Amino acid sequence: MSVFTKKKEDFMAWYLDIVRRAQIVDTRTEVKGMNVLLSNGYDIWDRMKKILDDKFYITGHKNMYFPLFIPEKFLELEGEHFEGFVPEVAYVTHAGKKKLDKKFALRPTSETIMYHMYSQWIRAYSDMPMKVNQWCNIIRIDTKDTKPLLRDREFQWTEAHTCHSTPEEAVEQVKESMWIYGSTYDECCLPYLITKRPKYDTFPGALYSIAYDTPLPDGKTLQIGTTHNLDQGFAKVFNIRFQKEDGSHDYAYQTCYGLSTRVIAAIISVHGDDRGLILPPYLAPLQVIIVPVIFKGKEEAIDQECKEALEEIQKAGIRVKYDDSDKTSGFKFNEYELLGVPIRIEIGPKDLEKKGVTFARRDTKERIFVTKDKIVETITELLEEITEELKKRAKKLMEESMSDAATYDELENKMNSKKPGFVRINWCGDVSCADEIKERLKAEIRGTLYGKEEVIFGSCIICDEEAKEVVYISKAY
Amino acid sequence: MSVFTKKKEDFMAWYLDIVRRAQIVDTRTEVKGMNVLLSNGYDIWDRMKKILDDKFYITGHKNMYFPLFIPEKFLELEGEHFEGFVPEVAYVTHAGKKKLDKKFALRPTSETIMYHMYSQWIRAYSDMPMKVNQWCNIIRIDTKDTKPLLRDREFQWTEAHTCHSTPEEAVEQVKESMWIYGSTYDECCLPYLITKRPKYDTFPGALYSIAYDTPLPDGKTLQIGTTHNLDQGFAKVFNIRFQKEDGSHDYAYQTCYGLSTRVIAAIISVHGDDRGLILPPYLAPLQVIIVPVIFKGKEEAIDQECKEALEEIQKAGIRVKYDDSDKTSGFKFNEYELLGVPIRIEIGPKDLEKKGVTFARRDTKERIFVTKDKIVETITELLEEITEELKKRAKKLMEESMSDAATYDELENKMNSKKPGFVRINWCGDVSCADEIKERLKAEIRGTLYGKEEVIFGSCIICDEEAKEVVYISKAY
Fold first, then answer.
1. What's the N-to-C CA distance of chain A in angstroms?
2. Do A94 and B97 touch (CB under 8 A)?
3. Record: fold of A402-474
4. Which residues in chain B have their CB less than 8 angstroms from residue A46's CB?
5. Superfamily of domain covering B11-271
6. Class of domain A288-385 (CATH, top level)
7. What's the pLDDT band for B126 if we cut at 50, 70, 90?
8. Alpha helix ranges (H) inside A162-285
9. Nearest-5° angle of CA A63, CA A65, CA A71?
């Protein structure tokens, strides 16, 4: 097995290497930025879908599917929103050799087509809250360099769009979405910071935007989800109007939130190492791999033990495979470490003698001997322990990624260091200062901590005028 | 509640009515043939996906996702296949205001992009069998009249594509797919006939095509799935070449099979009645609805009983809702009958007295009194019984839909009758006779029974020459 690019030496080269070699994505499609999500990647996404669908269900969201094609006039209706997407929108103009009467946009996001429907569905306050979720493919012909799962021209996502009869309820819905996404990231063992984006970085058409950013091991950060409070902006444009209890009329208060396959990139990046993936046990397509350590004359006995273990583990509902192929056990060890299988069970002649098996943890590389009667029990415990260990690592990465800068020099040093992470600074609120940070440091203001007023600890780090907010700066993907 | 179009009087009007009123699909999107799959429709599809995913898993299929965009040159490579789709293919030509260097087709099916990848993945016999499934949206700008779920320009489907090292294995794979689909239709309580399509109606590029047709209550039939044995046709074009065990080289033997949201249309059509949907219990978004029958002075006691029943049923993992809204119980009865909820539980003052509840079955309209301690047990039994009842109805519809015609007059009478169904005839095998049937009777040869040689019982029904096959004729949607 050839050696990986080292994660610490060149993070992006390591990432591209592992995504390919652990068979998450194949980019050789001849369609730039549109790749094959291979089964190892697909299965992770499928499990994330289950986690999210459960949360959508208990919070009263309904799943629906809306058209991929969007009439151009819908996009144009919401001018500001449309402008934000213009260069990225793909257009369908022909069917066969025939030119279509009207051209259609492929959804870069579904506000317009969904709200066109909502205006037909909502008549009275009693029709709300309305919470609709859509799982679908999204097309954005991003002009920047594409990178598998980090920046794709086609990707899978969930987008939820809600309507409420009061602005207070919309604010509560923003918080509910933060619980839905936050608890999902927790289950994926991901660290994240929730901030309210600055006004100039708000989603086109929204009142304010909340974003979820994860620190990556190379010191940059990655946005892995957003929630927007749309207030009545879209509702007025799309005429989502309703009768209130007192008989008067108002426009709906809306929110929306989305999260994409980019989360897979975050999981890979945060937890993977130089041997390959390290997958959170709940998401791992395979949780346990059984590898026989063959010894001449003992082949049959070992094979028998492996099969017994397989059957017992399968019965317990654990995702397990027994690899009885001709490859050497060393080759297999490497292969399943690359794939990030949380637990390896080895059965060799010594294990036979001692009436047990050897466990190897993917995360800590720890090996332990377990007697036959304790196999399933030990797996169940270990899967929990591994999850806890990965959550601990996420927390540690989060802590290591946070720092403060009181002066511009301090900020500059941190931003030019190997791991800038999130740096807390004081800001006057002027866009010109934000622009200067962008230009001089290639870094961006991510926003203010949501729901918590932070104490200002100095003047604006750029202009030295009075600071109005404490904000987080990072170099973002 | 307004009266439905009667199913027996005008099937298509009834279908369009019910699809809209039971909130399966909303067509008011301003994109012809691309509709909103509402949550009642979406949830049925989601459960079908689970049924199929379980079968894909145990038979060794892997789920993956391939690009929506297909380079035009891939389509052109397989000329015959491409020609079959030409007028329906949607093309993307622009990103924002910029014209793209190359135009891309939106997948009308994914053979070409998938096989382009397969040619990079398959090197040796040991790489096979390779069984890949994709869940995705499909775009076909059908020029015929669109009808929700029956003929859409965008629809959801599953397409599986397999590679094998021998032709025999490909034949076996065709059979496996027939089990996967057939057993799924069974679970959906659908009747179906499996035939091998005539040569002229074979999928472009395939050796032979197997199709699954369901008889609809109006006497027409609906194709609800297909399986194709592709032999080496595509493999030669896309260069899916492998080394055999003996060192020589060969091209892969392939199969593919697909099934779409059209199956939902079949379920609605076969089982629905003039009150609305009748859903197979396993697929029903809601399995039980609790409706209080309010009686003055007893409101609280009844509400209490309903809540207790709700909790108990929920704990048993059954999909249940308690409708405590202000609407009348009569209104609620109608509403949940329209939605096809298999079991209604009514709790009124008499039930209180007798310490029990009243069950109403959606399928038979039968009502039974059940004591409180037997509620969950009765539901579990009834869900089974209802499934059996629907399967019985499917079987009956199938039997009623089958008949033989020995003479052209007989065939003509049957095809012009109210319920033509499938009519078995003798055919010489000439396309000209098939064309005549099409032209004179607006009916089509569906094919020969797969895997069973049937005894010819006369001469060709058209030309009176010697018959070569027994085939099934129907008017197809």
1. 31
2. no
3. Translation Initiation Factor IF3 (3.30.110)
4. 63
5. Bira Bifunctional Protein; Domain 2 (3.30.930.10)
6. alpha beta
7. very high
8. 167-187, 233-238, 262-271
9. 140
Q: Do B36 and A65 touch (CB under 8 A)?
A: yes
Interface check for A120 against chain B (CB to CB < 8 A): the answer is yes
Q: Rounded to two decimals, what is the model's pTM?
A: 0.96
Between CA B341 and CA B23 the distance in angstroms is: 13
Task: Record the tokens describing residue A118, joined without a space.
Answer: 């909502």
Confidence check: pLDDT of A229 > 80: yes
A116 in B contact zone (CB under 8 Å): yes
Q: Which residues contact A287 (CB under 8 A, 6 or more apart)?
A: A281, A318, A319, A320, A341, A342, A343, A379, A383
For the record, the structure tokens of A99 come out as 């030119």
Residues of B in Cβ contact (< 8 Å) with A113: 29, 31
A positions 135-154 inside 8 Å of B (CB): 136-137, 139, 141, 154
Give contacts of A 250-289 with B, CB under 8 A.
none
Looking up tokens 């509620």, which residue turns up? B375
Judge contact between A87 and B90, C-beta under 8 A. Answer: no
Q: Please check whether residue A406 touches B, CB under 8 A.
A: no
Backbone angles phi and psi of A68, in degrees to 5: -70, -35
Query: Closest partner residue to B87 among A86, A95, A116, by Cβ?
Result: A95
Residue A137 has its nearest CB partner, among B30, B68, B89, at B68
Residues from chain B that touch A34, judged by Cβ atoms under 8 A, are 67-69
* Closest residue in chain A to residue B42, using alpha carbons only: A64
In terms of DSSP bridges, do strands B130-139 and B62-63 run parallel, antiparallel, or are they unpaired?
A: parallel
pLDDT tens, residue by residue, A154-191: 999 999 999 999 999 999 999 999 999 999 999 999 99
Nearest CA in chain A to B154: A67
Between helix B39-58 and helix B167-187 the angle, nearest 10°, is 140
Residue A1 reports pLDDT greater than 70: no
From B82, which residue of chain A is nearest by alpha-carbon distance?
Answer: A96
Chain A residues closer than 8 Å to B117 by CB: 26, 28-29, 36
What is the predicted pLDDT for the residue at B76?
Answer: 86
Give B435's Cβ-side CA count (13 Å radius): 4
Q: Alpha carbon A80 to chain centroid distance?
A: 27
Token pair recorded at residue B377? 């047990």
* Interchain CB contacts (distance < 8 Å): A and B: 144
From-to residues of CATH 3.30.110.30 in chain A: 402-474
Domain limits, CATH 3.40.50.800, in chain A? 288-385
* CA of A327 vs chain B CAs: smallest distance (Å): 13
Whether residue B93 and residue A95 make contact (CB cut-off 8 A), yes or no, is: no
Q: Give the Cα separation of B416 and B294 in Å (integer).
A: 52
Q: Is the pLDDT of residue A3 over 70?
A: no
Quote the Cα angle for A339-A180-A169, to 5°: 165
Q: Using one digit for the tens of pLDDT, what is the confidence trace for B354-385?
A: 999 999 999 999 999 999 999 999 999 999 99
